[in-house]
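Homework help thread (please don't just give me the answer)

Our assignment gives two proteins as sequence + structure token strings and asks us to describe the second one. The first is just a warm-up. Here they are:
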Amino acid sequence: MSGIHLVGKDELHDDIEIIAPNVLTKPWKTTRIYFRQRARKYDIVEGVCLEGSFAPGKDARGNDIFVPVQYDVGGNRIPPQ
């Protein structure tokens, strides 16, 4: 369950509830608070895409995780072992 609402003209709250009975003993609730910074000016800049930098894998317990893709000194991907 999640709810996003304005608290004031420059404040936004995002109420989040995570229910994961296999992981948590009770629902986890949090509120993310965002403030509008009217006096500050920001430039939107291009980000760096990480697509292809991670591959599916398993941790020591067998859980699904993402692992970094290995590269050699020439920048070529090293195939998984």
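The one we have to describe:
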Amino acid sequence: MLVRLLLISVVLVLAACTTAPPKNINNVCEIYDEYYDWYIAADAVYERWRIPHHVTMAFIHQESKFVDDARPPWEWFLWIIPTGRASSAFGYAQALDGTWYEYQKQTENWGADRDDFEDAVDFIGWYNHKTLIRNKVSPHDAYSLYLAYHEGQGGFSRGTYKNKPWLLRIAKKVKKRSDMYRNQLGNCQKELDDSRFWRSVFG
């Protein structure tokens, strides 16, 4: 009985630590109104890595739909035997184990967690900034940035995405959502900035 109560307590604690996805993930103004600390985090990404809000948030939407512990689905043998997940991707940014370790090492942010929104968007900023430098891509070019995010900067340079029509379709979706988020921000960013002090204090 005691063990059962302890297990229930652990489950409840873990559930309490989970951040629910925003109610409307198709409107970045509503996302930021619901989670103002996400606006602060994405703004810090722009200040540090020069990647604008609309690109960062479009990446998060595509990778995880704002689910903090998102993972690739299980793969099955003969539809009955689980063989593991397709990759080690995890969290808001669907970062792989090795790439996340590289991020931690280069930024010295050893306490970063993939299911923490602030760390995840900083990772996206870091990775895309590397693409800006190596591949000379515009920080507003969500289409090219996403291709490099998926294929790596080297793969992007070699054009490995050209024979992946499914990936090109996804990159177009990311660009479309980035453009939509940018237009939405035009209607609310001033208000978000003007209320920074009060929202930072009172939420």
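TA reply:
I won't write it for you, but here's a hint about the kind of observation we're looking for: Residues 165-194 form the longest helix (30 residues).
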